[in-house]
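Hi R.,

Here are the chain sequences for the assembly we discussed:
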Amino acid sequence: MIDILLKYFPQLLNGFWVTIESSIIALFGSLILGTIFAVMQVSRNKITRIISETYVEIFRNIPLLVITLFFFAFVAPVAKKIGLPIDGFTAGTIGLTLYTSAFIAEVIRSGINSISSSQMEGAVSNGLSWWQAMRYIVLPQAFKISIPNLGNQFVNLVKNSSVLAFVAGLDLMYNANSIAQNTFDSLNTYFIVAIFYLIITMPISYYMKHLEQRFKGGAH
Amino acid sequence: MEKAKKRQFGIVATLISILIFFGAITIMAIKANTTHQGTDTLERVKNAHIMTWGVKADTKLFGLMDTNDGQIKGFDVDIAKAVTKQIASDLNITIEPIFVQVTSSTRIQLLKNGNIDAFAATATATPERKKVADFSKPYFSAGQSILVPTKENIKSVKDLNKADKTILGVVGANSIINIKKFAPKAKILALNDYAQAMTALKAGQGDAITSDNGILYGMSMENKGYVVAGEPFTNEPYSIAFDKDQVPITKATNKALDEIIKNGSYNKLIKKWFSKVPGMNWRSLER
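And here is the predicted structure of the full complex:
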């Protein structure tokens, strides 16, 4: 195991950074998209509700791999013609962002729904617009309530980033597959890779726990 | 005070559970390695009267799943059948060949786990692979080549040796390691199987697919507008693989291969599978 780690360390490290890069982009992308769609789902406008519900149902119910392959194999040739090359990394990260954002939208929506509607009414009757009330009163509390679930989603996101391996996204899993093939020693290779994934996911778990503790009792 | 204690407990508990987890995996790994060692594949085949072969199911000409009857068909499958029959008649017993679908990335693990006795899955015996598996004599003379779109003006691998070219291959295939020597400037991407590599080529994710010529000819038969360009630039014959230190079955297989070449059934199989391939000099494959 040590000899594989030493021999292929640069390759593993490259994959490690690609996985982190893709995860960070997808994390922020899906958090922003997810929040937008969550707010759209609770809005009073019927059309925005329908749009966001359709979005969430589509991306939540299609396998991540299918979404990614769709961008890799069907969108890429079209995008190339208008000068936007989509490689494996881009296709994988887009797929990851859209897929996770659908779950995050559901998490935040349930957070918003758990805030008593009288808060919204009170804020509006005190002169705030619907948007202001959402932005300053409801969403901050919804986020606090959603933290444990968001943590789950972020950890899942990092693990799901292994979808990049399927479209040659050069991530950790892609390099692991190639090393396992070169050495014919899959057991030890995937063992090392498991540790690399833990290095990313454990701090996320701990940080989310920390946030949860910090905000405990703050919102009711 | 209480909080600090709680946190300490949490950290200790996490560390202990991680240790238990990794310990269990290590023990399992050691067990998996030891239980399998010492079993002789030939003995197992003799006693069970069954020989389990790993073959490809996504590779035209060598091993392809026929969706009409669910059978895997191809040159590798027929060679496996012929070898099994020959070994059986050499030993004066009956052995039934059974076929299991493998890919370049799963075949060695399945072999190591004992799920399959051998594989004939377009595998080249390389020095690095010989460290973990035993290989028979070559049963097919393959060489690496490239598949390109007809409309692109790519005549040989030299045309791909540019920084703006991308060459596609399959994870675990030897060709992906080799191509770096012939086109060091090109970018190389590995997909999961040949179907995906073909999809990627069609989607413009690369300029060429590299693999063994036999596989590429099969792909060009199925995909109009794609041709095998230039002569093969390596010599990488296919061999049958067994688990490490399985000398008896490797010897029996080599003997069987010699016999089917001698009695002409080998050439019949070459003719059956490769005489219809356009642009392929199948007579040169005969022995």
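The mean pLDDT of chain A is 90. The radius of gyration of chain A is 20 Å.

Let me know if anything looks off.

Best,
T.
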